[in-house]
Design brief:
By secondary structure, the chain is of the alpha/beta class. It contains 11 helices and 13 strands. Helix 3 links the parallel strand 3 and strand 4. Helix 5 packs parallel to helix 6, helix 6 packs parallel to helix 7 and helix 9 packs across helix 11. The longest helix is centred in the middle third of the chain and has 18 residues.
């Protein structure tokens, strides 16, 4: 059905199309998808000591306001991350701010953490109990004078309902946010958050979502900070504000974060660099250009323990988890493994 509708959907402005997708999921208009391989031991795993059916997650950015996470679980996602959520409601950057690069199977967005605010999101989650493992991605308000304080405020708000909380320091659309990649600034932020966790007596795992646009030296320093602060997982990576040289679409010049196929190889290489340094001491959630079983397979080989996607669903439709699992199953059976985890980090 999606292949028939895609040309019509792609005539719409990307942000309008996204709003339509959210409404369709909210009102169960996407009902003809039956999850395949639900109990296949090839895909079963644990995330933060909780059993999940498969390692394929929905990345933050799709369900910004926690409206359709349970519908996404029905589509087969093993886990879902909502947000980015800020303490206060904010509109984000002026429109137009999302651009669809069809020839490149990519999006460029400069949304700027548009969301309804932490209090509205927590109310929604409390009214609609998550049917699966739910992560909440948090960030600071654009005009905040105390960004560390904003992260703390969101941590306090979501501590009791999130299965994990992601510290987003990597969006290219909030000015100077990526300065938290600096070793001392990141260390200071994580220590402040850990202090707050202890005061809350919180056991909620913390992940950090990093930029794909970092160099080898920064990879080493970030790894040291994460390990020294007992962070349990890293998300590699966010959208890129570079990687434009091979784009075909004329909108490739647009300012914002590039996601989708053009950053697939870049994120996979970055995953492998982190894997070699971290050596299994914390989990890696791999993001960037995943839209097929082969793409997922390569992320696992590079060292990802789990994967997330968003742009892939824009181009392949709501049945993407089933498509990935079908293709991935063939590759894993060819390897003769009993569970996908056996290939993690086995890049030749």
């Amino acid at each position: 059905m999606f292949s028939n509708l895609r040309s019509l959907i792609f005539k719409l402005d990307p942000e309008t199309a996204h709003s339509l997708a959210i409404k369709s999921l909210k009102f169960n208009f996407v009902t003809n998808i039956v999850e395949s391989e639900k109990n296949n031991p090839l895909f079963k795993t644990k995330l933060f000591n909780k059993d999940i059916d498969n390692p394929i997650g929905m990345a933050a950015g799709f369900d910004k306001n926690a409206e359709v996470y349970n519908s996404l679980f029905k589509l087969g996602f093993g886990f879902v991350e909502v947000g980015t959520v800020t303490p206060l409601k904010q509109f984000g950057n002026p429109k137009p701010r999302v651009f669809r690069l069809v020839e490149d199977e990519a999006l460029i967005n400069r949304l700027g953490f548009n969301n309804v605010g932490a209090e509205n999101v927590i109310d929604r989650i409390k009214r609609n109990y998550p049917a699966g493992l739910l992560g909440i991605n948090i960030g600071p308000n654009k005009d905040s004078n105390n960004r560390a304080g904003d992260y703390i405020e969101c941590l306090k708000t979501f501590n009791d309902v999130a299965d994990y909380i992601t510290i987003n320091i990597s969006s290219p659309n909030t000015e100077d946010l990526r300065s938290f990649h600096n070793q001392s600034k990141l260390d200071e932020l994580l220590k402040v958050l850990d202090k707050e966790k202890k005061s809350l007596n919180s056991k909620t795992p913390i992940t950090v979502k990093i930029s794909p646009d970092i160099n080898d030296y920064e990879i080493k320093l970030i790894s040291e900070v994460l390990l020294n602060n007992d962070i349990e997982a890293i998300i590699v990576s966010n959208s890129s504000d570079s990687t434009r040289d091979k784009l075909k679409n004329i909108q490739g010049y647009q300012k914002g974060g590039l996601s989708g196929k053009p950053i697939e190889l870049k994120s996979t290489k970055l995953i492998n660099k982190f894997y070699k340094i971290l050596n299994g001491r914390l989990k890696i959630i791999g993001v960037g250009g995943v839209d097929s079983g082969k793409g997922a397979y390569e992320k696992f080989l590079a060292g990802a323990n789990y994967i997330q996607l968003y742009t892939g669903m824009v181009f392949r439709g709501p049945n993407i988890v089933n498509l990935i699992k079908k293709e991935l199953k063939e590759l894993l059976l060819k390897d003769g493994v009993k569970n996908f985890s056996e290939i993690i980090g086995k890049t030749k």
